[in-house]
Amino acid sequence: MSYWDPLPAVRAAEAGPLPAPDGGTWLPSPEYRGRWWNPRPDRWAERDWRNVPGPFYGAGTDTCWMGRLIAPAHVLYDDEWGAEFAYRQPRDAAQALALLGAVAQDPMVGYACDGDVHWTPELVRDWWRERGRVREWAAALDPYLVRLGPVRGARGGRRGPGVRRVHRHRPRRIPPPLRLLVSEGRPARPGEPLPTLSPRGA
Asked: How far apart, in whole angstroms, are the C-alpha atoms of residue 96 and residue 61?
């Protein structure tokens, strides 16, 4: 397995049509393009604790319940208020485009894609130790979202399954793209083979 870097695909797609909530496409206005890319100094510190390690993360997004209309495989809502976070990183250009479409819908410009600059071995280990807390959160929130129905992204509809996806994407071992960061303190390079085993003690 090798590492796939989503940033070139994101940069290439940002100037063109992006996925829209209605299943079509839309073209962001020129003054909007690139706004989310420029990180605010405080955004990393404000990130939602449920974001998975990787380049994309949400920090103080809007609460309009838009992200899962476009990227249900990557976006979840933190609670009944609907602020968004990235529970899964993109693995190919199509997934990166979908997530960018969700990012571009956020009027609060609460997403960033500079996570690989900030993640450290210790932060990844902290995230790994907290995976049980995320499962507990998902189990507690799931009944609430089920009552709201598919319009809020619990199950079914265009948004697909809701918080139960968290359980599928919280693996038993540290995911391969993070292993070099944990073991060597650096992110993987594009196309670099990844270790097959988690480091001892991680």
From this structure: 18
Q: Give the CA distances from residue 199 to residues 1, 98, 123, 177, 183, in Å, rounded to whole numbers and listed in that order.
A: 16, 32, 15, 13, 6
Please answer whether residues 179 and 198 qualify as being in contact, where contact means their C-beta atoms are separated by less than 8 angstroms. yes
Give the integer Cα–Cα distance in Å for 51 and 130: 11
**Distances in Å between the alpha carbon of 127 and those of 67, 108, 170, 201?**
23, 25, 11, 14
Question: What residues make up the domain containing 113?
Answer: 7-14+38-118
Which of 71, 93, 118 lies at the terminal end of a domain, its last residue?
118
87's tokens = 């529970």
What are 143-180's pLDDT values in tens digits?
A: 665 555 554 443 433 333 455 555 455 555 566 567 66
33: in domain: no
Q: What is the pTM of this model?
A: 0.78
